[in-house]
Design brief:
about 350 residues, single chain, alpha/beta, 9-stranded mixed sheet
């Protein structure tokens, strides 16, 4: 069976750069799946003008794969169905499914994702600490033989690992890799990926998406330039696939548009955007709970959506996942400090129009 490839229209959306939020999991007070709220969340992201949505990723909670919980396929189906039915304008919209685990599991998840109409798989490298880079590259080839892939460089503090420059060079040559999400939270490791892609034969085929929630705006503004065999090769991050963009998503769409306009107009307004970049990082520190090694990152996302009325509460499948001490106050602080970067009024009007 030949691998599924990315639809050219969606490839254009990906290549031009877009906002791809990572959807959280909606639960009720009994920590059971809240399908109506999950569908409401999907409609929210579609309404913001985002160009895609990532499902069954870290923000959706990896525990959905636990056989006792058994929500992986359910969540994929519900979100895909809702996006299809709510997309009245039939605009191009990229559906991304998280894929993880050893090769057999990742391939199986890719097949399930295809069953429910997903376009790309975001392939996690987490949980494979004992594997060699050669073994992981073969796993990537096996999954890419099923569906188009977005690579994923995940920071070690939340289960990722550091890869060599040579790994990313070889990774970039794999067919059916459409993009790489860099979430290393580290400038040196981010640079490794960008330079490796620039030296590959597929440089123009692979799009770079930031997952560096601590450096979103600078990532999007920066043009990388390398001398490759006597030729200048340039590469940029064109968009973001981010847990941070699961909240205040309308504002994220507007910010990406500002970045694009700035770059198209000889960097006019770049100083103001860099200042906004620091503000976004401050907001992310509160939501993601960076002060406590990201312990409260998922409850932090849930808390913002709860305040807006998009979620009933901030419950997680793991009862131990809660806001850290002082995190609520930090969320209060950044919401008050940066009202121009939140979308409360948009959500309010959206909910009023739906009910």
């Amino acid at each position: 069976m030949s691998a599924k490839t990315l639809d050219p229209t969606l490839k254009s959306v990906l290549h031009n750069g877009t906002v791809i939020p990572a959807i959280p999991l909606a639960l009720n007070s009994l920590r059971k799946f809240d399908e109506p709220r999950q569908r409401q969340l999907a409609r929210y992201y579609l309404a913001t003008g985002a160009g895609g949505l990532a499902v069954a990723v870290h923000s959706t909670q990896f525990e959905i794969r636990d056989p006792k919980i058994n929500l992986f396929e359910t969540v994929l189906k519900v979100v895909s169905d809702e996006l299809d039915s709510a997309n009245h304008d039939c605009r191009p919209f990229i559906k991304v499914s998280g894929l993880c685990g050893p090769t057999a599991q990742a391939v199986s998840e890719a097949e399930i994702a295809l069953k429910y109409g997903y376009d790309l798989g975001l392939l996690s490298m987490g949980g494979l600490q004992s594997w060699t880079e050669k073994d992981i590259l073969q796993r990537v080839r096996d999954v890419a033989a099923v569906m188009p892939i977005i690579g994923f460089y995940l920071q070690p503090s939340v289960g990722g690992r550091i890869f060599t420059y040579d790994f990313w060079q070889e990774f970039a040559e794999i067919k059916n890799i459409e993009a790489i999400k860099v979430a290393a939270f580290n400038r040196y490791q981010t640079l490794d990926v960008v330079r490796a892609v620039c030296t590959s034969s597929r440089c123009n085929e692979i799009d770079l998406y930031t997952g560096n929630d601590d450096n979103i705006i600078p990532d999007l503004l920066t043009k990388y330039s390398f001398d490759i065999k006597g030729k200048k090769v340039e590469k940029e991050f064109v968009g973001g696939l981010l847990g941070h963009w699961a909240v205040w998503t309308k504002s994220a769409v507007e910010l990406l548009n500002e970045v694009k306009q700035c770059k198209a107009n000889n960097n006019t307004g770049i100083a103001e955007l860099l200042t906004k970049g620091i503000e976004v990082t401050d907001m992310n520190a509160a939501i993601f709970d960076s002060a406590n090694s990201f312990h409260g990152c998922i409850p932090g996302i849930h808390e913002v959506l709860r305040r807006q009325g998009l979620l009933e509460g901030r419950w997680c499948l793991n009862p131990n996942e809660e806001l850290s001490a002082g995190q609520m106050e930090e969320i209060d602080r950044v919401c008050a400090a940066y009202p121009h970067l939140i979308d409360d009024e948009f959500v309010k009007q959206l909910l009023l129009s739906e009910f």
